Amino acid sequence: MKVHDLRSLLAECPVKQIIGNEHRTVSALASDSRLVGPGSVFFALSGTQADGHQFIGQAIAQGAVAVVCEKIPENPSPEITWVQAESTAYCLAMSASAFYGHPSRQLKLVGVTGTNGKTTIATLLYNLFSQAGYPSGLISTIRYLVGKQEYPATHTTPDPLTINKLLSEMVSRGCSHAFMEVSSHAMAQMRTFGLHFTGGIFTNLTHDHLDYHGSFAAYRDAKKLFFDILPKEAFALINADDRNGRFMVQNTRAGIYSYALRTDADFKARVLENQFEGLLLNIMGKEVLTRLIGRFNAYNLLAIYAAATLLGMSEEEALTGLSRLESASGRFEYVKSESGIIGIVDYAHTPDALENVLSTINEIRTRNEKLITIAGAGGNRDKAKRPEMARIACIQSDIVILTSDNPRWEDPNEILNDMRAGVPGEHYKKTIVIPDRREAIQAAVNMATKGDIILLAGKGHENYQEIQGKKHHFDDKEELFGRLLNT
Fold first, then answer.
1. What does the DSSP 8-state code read for residue 369?
2. Which residue in 110, 211, 341, 453 is deepest, having the highest Cβ count within 10 Å?
3. Which residues have CB under 8 Å from 353's CB, separation 6+?
4. What separation in angstroms does the CA of 248 have from each of 142, 179, 223, 226, 427?
5. Which CATH number describes the domain made up of 103-324?
6. What are the start-end ranges of the H helices in 257-372?
7. What is the bridge-based pairing of β-strands 177-181 and 136-139?
8. Distance from CA of residue 7 to its chain's centroid?
9. Is residue 473 within 8 Å of residue 462, measured between CB atoms?
C-alpha cells in the first residue's frame, strides 16, 4: 500500500486554506464517496450530475481523513483535515499524478484530440509501436491496454485516478510509450492536468457534444486547452486541412508541426488508389499500400506516420508498419457474403463522420448497385445533429433506414421524428423508419441483392444498446455480419 504525506500531494495545488493537520498520512484518493476507505482523501467534485459536497458526510463515515472541497461546511469536524481548493478538479488531477509517482514523466505519452479519428489514431499508434518492439500502453474509447493486459474502457478519457493508475502500471511493466484519446469532456473537467505529454495530435473539429459544452466555441476551446498546456519540449501535430488546426496551437509552447493532403504542410500525402482492398498512398514521396479504406483514413495514417517519426521512428520502419496495420474495432469494418453483398459497420455518429464514410463508399462503388444506409442517433445527447445526419444519409444513399441507436432515457420515436425532419422532400420515398434496430438490420439484408452495399452506422465497437438506463447486449457486427455470412 502506498502512503503519502497530504501536504506533498497538494504541492502543486492552489489552495485557499487548510484547516487541521496538513501532514496526514494518506493511503488512498477518491472522488466517489462509495470508494472511500480508512486513510483516504475525498475530493468533492462539483459535477454535471451531482455535487460531491453532498457526499462529504458519507466519505467521513467511511474513513476519510481529509476532504478537498471548494466550500468548507459551516461546522467542520475537527478530526478531519479540510482543504479549501480553488478547483477541486484541478487538485484531484495534480494529486493523482503525485500519488502514483508522476508516471507520465517516465513514458513517451501522446494524446490525440479532435472530433473524429481519435480512436483509430491512438489504437493504431499503439499497434505500430507494439509491433515494432516498443512495449506500449493505450487508453481509448474501446479498451485500455497495459502492454498486452487488457481492461474494459469506461470512458474515452477516464478520471485522473484511473489514468495515473494505468500509466503507473505501464511504467512498472516496462512500457516505453503510451497513447491516449483526449476528449473535450476530459479537458473541460481537467482530467489530464498534471500529465506530461511528449506530443499532442489534432485531427479535425466538427459538430459534436454541444449538449454538454453549450456552443461550438466552448467545444473548440476545450480542445484547444489540451495544446495550451503542452510543455515546450513536446510536439503539437495539427491537421492543416482543417481550418481549426492553426487556432488550436495559437498559445501552445510546444513545437508545431502540420500534416495535410490538400495544403502545404510538414507532412504531406496523396491518395493514389482508394478501393475496398485498401489505400495506396504516397507519403512524403514514397508509396505505401495499406489495408485501411477511405480518404479519412488517409488523414489518420498520415498523422500516425508523422507522430511516429516525431517520436524517433525511422521513415522506413514507420512506412513498413503502416502497411501492416488493420482498422480499429468498429471503424469501417466490412465483410462480403457469398452472394456478393458487402456489409460495413462504422462508429460514425456525427454528421461529419457519416459524410466521410458515405463519401468513401461512393468514391469506390460502381453505381450499378444499391447503397443501403442504416442510421440512428443517440438519446440524451446533442439534438441538433439528428436532422443533419438524416439529410446526409439520404443525399448519399439509395435507400435509408432510420432506426434506434442508444435511446437512453428518450423515447426512440421522438429521436426518429427529429431525424425525419432532416429528410429532404425529394428523398421521402426512399426513407424508411424502423425503430427496432434488429428489425432494421434484417430489413436491409432482405432488400439487398448481389453487389449491394449495406452501411450500418453509429455504434461500431459497442456491444450494447442502452434503453431506459439499462444496457442490453447488442453488437452491430454480430447482427449484420452474422446475417450476411449465413445468407
1. S
2. 110
3. 115, 116, 206, 296, 346, 347
4. 26, 20, 7, 9, 38
5. 3.40.1190.10
6. 295-310, 315-324, 351-364
7. parallel
8. 34
9. no
* Number of neighbours of residue 15 by Cβ within 10 angstroms: 14
CB 191 within 8 A of CB 93: yes
Identify the pLDDT of residue 207: 56
Alpha-carbon distance of 413 to 403, in angstroms, equals 9
Nine cell digits for residue 135? 512495449
Full strand arrangement of the beta sheet holding 431-433: 333-336, 342-346, 453-457, 371-375, 399-402, 431-433
**pLDDT, averaged in runs of 10, over the chain (487 residues):** 87 94 95 94 83 92 96 91 95 97 98 93 97 97 93 87 97 98 89 96 76 68 93 98 95 98 97 93 97 94 98 98 92 91 93 92 93 94 91 97 93 94 94 96 96 95 90 94 88
Q: Is the dihedral of CA 224, 153, 48, 109 positive or negative?
A: negative
Cell 480499429 found at: 328
Q: What is the pLDDT at residue 213? A: 45
Q: E strand or H helix at 133, and its extent?
A: none
| Cα 295 from Cα 280, distance rounded (Å) | 11
Nearest to 132 by CA among 345, 308, 275, 280: 308
Cα–Cα distance list, 24 to 19, 36, 61, 82, 188 (Å): 12, 16, 17, 11, 30
The pLDDT assigned to 433 comes to 96
State pTM to two decimals: 0.86
Burial class (CB in 10 A: 0-12, 13-18, 19+), 270: middle
The CATH label, of 3.40.1390.10, 3.20.20.70, 3.20.20.370, 3.40.50.1950, for the domain at 4-99 is 3.40.1390.10
What's the full length of the chain, in residues? 487
Q: What CATH architecture is 333-485?
A: Alpha-Beta Complex (3.90)
Q: How far apart are the first and last CA of the chain?
A: 56
Q: Cell numbers for 46, please give them.
A: 462539483
Which residues fall within 8 angstroms of residue 284, CB to CB, at 6 or more apart? 267, 268, 269, 305, 315
Query: What is the β-pairing status of strands 4-5 and 25-26?
Result: antiparallel
